[in-house]
Amino acid sequence: MTVPMAILAFLDSGPTHGFVLKRRYDELLGHGRELKYGQVYATLARLERDGLAGGVGIEHGDGADRKVYAITPAGAGELDAWLSSPHVPTGRPSELFTKVVLALVAGRAADDVLDTQRRAYLARMRELTAARRDGDVVDRLAADYEIAHLEADLRWIELAGTRLETLAEQVRGSTASPTVPASTSTEDDR
């Protein structure tokens, strides 16, 4: 839902066309995940269909004419509702949690999974710390956010490492499968 909300927020500052929306998104939020023009225009079409944004004119230029979009009152309400609702993670943790559990299920060394991930997180933290020195305030704040999450994940890795033996026992207990007889055919199957 982030891309539609980002486009609504950009439109909230004034009507514009897709090229500017893409450029603003890429500058502020894209870093490594830039939007494709097709995604921008598909999102604008959905926002227009849903009554959250609408075309308000055409901008003529050197190249092709560009449709100018503006946020609607319904779009401003949707943006306000999204901004004021807290984000609370739910469900099972990330793929790392799943890898640890499945490593144990498969009889593999889950501590190797944790060690590999720890090294990757520490390397990423070094990259982010170096990048913060040269970045603008948006880049620094984004790096701070990612570093904080990496630090939390590193704490979880340490905690998981202390619980691997207990977790392994529980996983082994929950995966005990019933013995399958050599022949499973019945008279109905014949």
Automatic annotation (TrEMBL):
Residues 7-80 form the Transcription regulator PadR N-terminal domain. Residues 174-190 have a biased composition (Low complexity). Residues 170-190 are annotated as: Disordered. InterPro entries: Tscrpt_reg_PadR_N (IPR005149), WH-like_DNA-bd_sf (IPR036388), WH_DNA-bd_sf (IPR036390). Pfam families: PadR (PF03551). SUPFAM superfamilies: Winged helix' DNA-binding domain. Gene3D superfamilies: Winged helix-like DNA-binding domain superfamily/Winged helix DNA-binding domain. This is PadR family transcriptional regulator. It comes from Flavimobilis soli.
